């Protein structure tokens, strides 16, 4: 599974088997929304509108 960031050009795939974890880490560190490549669509639901605890 390849994950892509909807806010910048980040994407997983460099660490086979670790894509999910690196995707979560990118989300936590940046607050960017991550989507898996197979489900990249023009979703309108703000499902990832939460910000990490400050
Ligand atoms: Zn990003």
Explain briefly what this protein structure is.
With 54 residues, this protein is an alpha+beta fold. The chain is 22% helix and 11% strand. Strands 1-2 form a two-stranded antiparallel ribbon.
Q: What is the end-to-end distance?
A: 29 Å
Largest sheet: 2 strands, antiparallel
Tell me the Rg in angstroms: 11 Å
- Reading the helices and strands in chain order gives EHE
Percent of residues in β-strands = 5-15%
Low-confidence stretches: none
Bound molecules: zinc ion
Chain-averaged pLDDT: 79
Structural class: alpha+beta
List the strand order in the largest sheet: 1-2
- The total of helices stands at 1
Determine the oligomeric state from the structure.
Answer: single chain
> Could you say which overall geometry the principal axes of the C-alpha atoms support?
globular
How much helicity do the residues have?
Answer: 10-25%
Number of strands: 2
Description:
The chain has a two-stranded antiparallel sheet with strand order 1-2. It is of the alpha+beta class and 54 residues long. It contains one helix and two strands. The protein is globular and about 30 Å long. It has a domain at 3-39. Residues 31-54 are annotated as: Disordered.
């Amino acid at each position: 599974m390849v994950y892509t960031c909807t806010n910048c050009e980040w994407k997983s795939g460099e660490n086979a088997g670790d894509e999910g974890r690196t995707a979560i880490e990118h989300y936590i560190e940046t607050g960017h929304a991550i989507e898996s490549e197979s489900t990249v669509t023009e979703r309108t639901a703000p499902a990832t509108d939460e910000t990490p605890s400050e």
